[in-house]
Every structure is written in structure tokens, then in C-alpha cells.
Design brief:
The protein is built from ten helices and eleven strands. By secondary structure, it is an alpha+beta fold. The longest helix has 29 residues.
């Protein structure tokens, strides 16, 4: 059976790319296609080195673990050991599912053409089998994680957030809202929606009591409020949710916030959207935080 080096590289590059892309999609991290391509290419080169037995070191378990860490780090550029470990575990899980589905398809289609050398699966099977296996595995993983996500309790989706501004600070309970895509239309900074009543110890009462005047541009009333130190921090955010279509919400930029989960994450690029109603009837949380902020790098 004739085996071509370029075919092995291409097949492994494609599979590695799809596995890394799926890992990023499931974990909802920012996708860098060029980074994933480079990491996938490194994996393809490793497959050739392992197949040809150039260096015995490359075929042992430790080398494969190091390779996995390098591929995950290059792909997602995480700055936290916990994040890298989480991404690495998901990478392995995705790889096992992809490998199992692809191997099952290959076995049923052309089992006589499947060979294994130095831990590398090779053969004369058509590349469309690789694509089909990847698609089936991707669909399976999406269905499973969608099913699992629906069964998460509200407690699993809650976190504490500290908000700091003008030498003042407050702590609020926030719900991690996967549907919160609200951003400042100019700077594209994510907006964290917070109930007005939760901000009384952070923002001057004159601002909170005159939200409609500020939104409506009533210059006379606004000028009499003596809020010049806050003017540069105020934003007007358009939205089409929170029970109102094509509305406007007043936003204000804090000095920074701290999202408290397994670790404390400091975020500077965020805007607080002031919501003049309640977000939940039972008061279990007072803010909505998006996944963009949860996955944001610290001090950004």
C-alpha cells in the first residue's frame, strides 16, 4: 500500500483544525483561525515524525501530552493555567469523540485498508470519510452539550461582580446571560446590565433620578444636576430587548469590575447599563453579564 507524506499531513491538519475549532466553539472562546491553522499544522508534522520514526521520543505519551498543550496554547492564547487545563480537557474529549466516530466509519467502510504505525492511523481510505466522521462528531458534541447546558441550574449560572467607580464600590449578584449581546455601538465594549436600585451607593442619586431627562437630552435639567465629573463616563446604548423594542438605555463606564468565579478577573473595558426595572421577581440577581465578559482576559 502506497502512503504519501503530503496526504498524511493534510488529513491530520484537517482533523486537528476541526477538533480545535469545535473545542473553541463548545467553550465559547474567541476563535483565531490562523492560530488554529498553525497548531493543526504542527500536529500534522508530528504525525509524519511519528509515522517515519525519525525520533523515538515523539512517540511516547509525555511527548503527546506536551504536543497537546502546545496546540491548545497556540490556538486559544490563554493567560491562565486553569483556562489552559479546561481547554486541554475539552480538546481531549473532542478528540476521543472524533477519533471514535471516524474509526467506526473507516472500519465499516474499508477495514482492510486501515493500518497503524507508531500511533498514526494511515490507509488508502477516501478523505471524504474523514470529513463525514468530523461532521457527525461535531453534531453529536453540539447536541450533547446543548442538552447539558439546558439542565444547568440558575445557581451554576450566577457569579458575584464587584463594580468600582470614583472611589466607590458595590457588589452585585449577576446572571451569566448567554443571550446578552449588548455592546456600545461606537466602541463595541460589552455592556453589563445592572438594576438601578443596586447602584444607589455607586452613582449619584441625581443621575439615577433623572435617567429619562438625560436620555431625552433635556439640557436645562441636566445642567442643573451638577454631574460634570460623570459626563465623560455616560453612554447612550440602543437595545431591543428587556421588554422594549428599539429602546435606549443609559450606560456609564466604571473604573473597572471584578468578576468572581473560581478566580477574580479584573475587567476595565466594560459599560454598566442602568436598567430602571427589576430583572427577576425573586431578586436572586441584580445584573446580567455576558459570556464575552466571562471569557475576557483579565485587565482588558
Amino acid at each position: 500500500m502506497a502512503i504519501y507524506v503530503d496526504v498524511i499531513i493534510i488529513e491530520n491538519l484537517i482533523m486537528n483544525y476541526i477538533i480545535l475549532f469545535t473545542t473553541g466553539m463548545i467553550l465559547k472562546v474567541r476563535i483565531y483561525h490562523f492560530r488554529i491553522f498553525i497548531a493543526s499544522l504542527i500536529g500534522g508534522i508530528y504525525a509524519i515524525v511519528g509515522y517515519m520514526g525519525i525520533l523515538e521520543l515523539y512517540t511516547n505519551v509525555l511527548a503527546k501530552i506536551i504536543l497537546s498543550i502546545v496546540m491548545v496554547y497556540i490556538s486559544f492564547n490563554s493567560n491562565s493555567v486553569k483556562k489552559i487545563l479546561k481547554q486541554l480537557m475539552m480538546f481531549y474529549l473532542t478528540s476521543f469523540v472524533f477519533g471514535g466516530v471516524a474509526f467506526a466509519l473507516l472500519y465499516f467502510v474499508k477495514p482492510q485498508d486501515i493500518l497503524q504505525k507508531n500511533g498514526v492511523l494511515i490507509g488508502s481510505y477516501p478523505i471524504k470519510i474523514v470529513f463525514l466522521g468530523a461532521i457527525l462528531a461535531f453534531v453529536m458534541l453540539k447536541i450533547v452539550f446543548k442538552w447539558y447546558k439546558k439542565r444547568l441550574t440558575n445557581k451554576d449560572m450566577l457569579c458575584d461582580v464587584n463594580i468600582y467607580m470614583m472611589n466607590n464600590s458595590i457588589k452585585v449578584k449577576a446572571y451569566i446571560d448567554t443571550g446578552n449581546l449588548l455592546k456600545d455601538p461606537i466602541s463595541q465594549i460589552p455592556v453589563m446590565v445592572v438594576e438601578e436600585k443596586a447602584l444607589v451607593n455607586l452613582i449619584p442619586e441625581k443621575i439615577l433620578n433623572n435617567l429619562q431627562n438625560i436620555l431625552g437630552g433635556d439640557r436645562k435639567k441636566v445642567e442643573n444636576m451638577e454631574i460634570n465629573t460623570y459626563i465623560s463616563k455616560i453612554r447612550i446604548i440602543p437595545f431591543s430587548s428587556l421588554g422594549k423594542e428599539n429602546g435606549m438605555i443609559l450606560g456609564i463606564k466604571p473604573d473597572y469590575i471584578e468578576i468572581i468565579e473560581e478566580e477574580v478577573k479584573k475587567i476595565k473595558n466594560v459599560i454598566i447599563g442602568i436598567y430602571d426595572k427589576t430583572l427577576t421577581k425573586n431578586g436572586s440577581y441584580q445584573a446580567l453579564v455576558s459570556l464575552d465578559l466571562i471569557e475576557e482576559n483579565s485587565d482588558s
